[in-house]
Specification:
The chain is mainly beta and 132 residues long. It has one helix and twelve strands; from the N terminus they run βββββββαβββββ.
Length: 132
């Protein structure tokens, strides 16, 4: 089994012969917080207030044919969001950022649904923000 990373125990990214759960299109935003002070007859003055909270967006595909139970994984993500849980995001054995991450939103698309309502494949977009 090859573990790629994890967000605490809520999501474990891994590849093996029987289980594949990875992410794609990860984007990380890093910013600074600035104030602008107007001055009479001159250009405005900028003041650095400190670093802004970092954010991350990425997509995952939950596919039953790859050994993943889409609704079960999504229920865990929903539970983490709605209970306000934050945890470290680790990719390749290294933490992403220096602080834990809270998942602020998730959107899901049920791509394949079998008879009886069993979801076979689900596309999920996650947005996370640094938690201090």
């Amino acid at each position: 089994m090859g573990q790629i990373g994890n967000w605490g125990s809520h999501i474990v990214f891994e590849t093996s012969d029987s289980h594949i759960l990875t992410f794609s299109k990860m984007q990380r935003k890093i910013s600074g917080e600035w104030s602008t002070h107007k001055t009479i007859g001159q250009k405005a003055k900028s003041e650095f207030n400190g670093p802004g909270l970092q954010s991350i967006n990425f997509s995952i595909t939950l596919d039953a044919s790859l050994g993943v139970r889409p609704r079960t994984v999504m229920e865990g993500i929903v539970s983490a969001i709605e209970s306000g849980q934050a945890d470290y995001l680790v990719i390749g054995g290294r933490m992403v950022g220096r602080h834990p991450w809270k998942c602020t939103s998730a959107s899901e698309s049920w791509d394949i649904v079998y008879s009886g309502g069993e979801v076979a494949r689900m596309s999920v977009s996650l947005t996370m923000e640094e938690y201090l």
